[in-house]
Design brief:
single chain, alpha/beta, Rossmann fold, 12 helices
Length: about 300
């Protein structure tokens, strides 16, 4: 039985994958011989049925429970003739959480599973930072302004560190896809794992974002320790009054552009892992002479400069 581990990243359509494989698990089992375990699953229709509890439990008492439950479910699925199992968590794009992934893969092999591969989606890095900040402010009580958020999460926004590590963890059996090139992340994911003629039945888009003004409102409310489930005042006003506040609040200065690119195919770590001929991702570097590899030291210098120029 194949084990396919979806590693995010955040804000790349992960919720649509997770919700489909969980809510349509009977259809997927009967028609595609696929399985989405419930062990270590965090249940949320709005933000996705993800295996976050499993990977965040490393070093805690729940680790043994979640991994034992996973072992039981996977071995039973294999016994029943299931052809593949999907495990999904955006947290696996975070280098800190990847230690749990390493430990989990060791366990999978001990349980007799050798056919293990990883898939992740990445998007334009400036857009990723912005949406990551908005997501954690809206749903996870972030109180920091965006410059403070970037300083706190530099490791999350360091694409070479995060995804080269995944390439190594999966021993090269790792696919990195470009979010902007997919009309639907769910469609693309299903194609990559060999599923076809799929009946989706339910809407695929979930976990929609909100505008910049609402994010600032949520951040300020978070500083007062007021419990809420995500405030959407400005977004509702926009739809009711037919006006826009989006250009009234600036999270990034105008000097930051989305045109600073480097070809992924030039990274030695990713050679022969791409099916595309000319796909690119945004980096934080302004160095035009980087072509054959990516220098993490230069990235850190560029990141510091980037933060220094953020709107306070």
């Amino acid at each position: 039985m194949k084990i396919i581990i979806h590693c995010g990243a955040y804000k790349t359509g992960s919720s649509s994958i997770q919700n489909f494989f969980h809510t349509r698990k009977n259809y997927i089992l009967d028609n595609h011989r696929g399985f989405y375990p419930t062990a270590g699953l965090f249940f949320s229709k709005e933000i996705g049925y993800r295996h976050t509890k499993l990977f965040y439990s490393l070093g805690k008492p729940d680790w043994d429970k979640h991994t034992n439950d996973m072992k039981t479910q996977l071995l039973e699925a294999k016994k029943q003739g299931v052809e593949f199992a999907i495990i999904s968590s955006e947290a696996l794009s975070n280098p800190i959480i990847q230690r749990a992934l390493r430990e989990f893969i060791v366990l999978l092999k001990q349980w007799g599973f050798e056919d293990i591969r990883g898939i992740a989606y990445i998007r334009n890095l400036y857009g990723y930072i912005l949406r990551h900040y908005r997501e954690f402010t809206l749903r996870h009580k972030n109180q920091k302004k965006i410059n403070g958020w970037i300083k706190k999460n530099q490791h999350v926004f360091d694409y070479p560190q995060a995804f080269c590590a995944l390439h190594e963890i999966f021993k090269g059996r790792f696919e990195l896809a470009i979010y902007e090139e997919c009309s639907s992340t769910l469609d693309d994911f299903c194609q990559r794992i060999g599923m076809s003629n799929i009946d989706y039945s339910e809407p695929k888009r979930v976990n929609s974002g909100i505008n910049a003004l609402d994010i600032e409102i949520n951040r300020l409310v978070n500083t007062k320790a007021i419990k809420h489930k995500g405030l959407r005042f400005a977004s509702n006003l926009e739809s009711q009054l037919g006006i826009t506040f989006t250009d009234k609040v600036s999270e990034f200065p105008a000097l930051l552009k989305n045109d600073d690119w480097i070809g992924v195919q030039n990274w030695p770590q990713f050679q022969n892992t791409f099916n595309f001929s000319d796909e690119q991702i945004t980096t934080l570097t302004k160095r035009p002479d980087i072509t054959d590899s990516f220098n993490v030291y230069e990235l850190s210098k560029s990141l510091a400069t980037f933060i220094d120029h953020l709107v306070a």
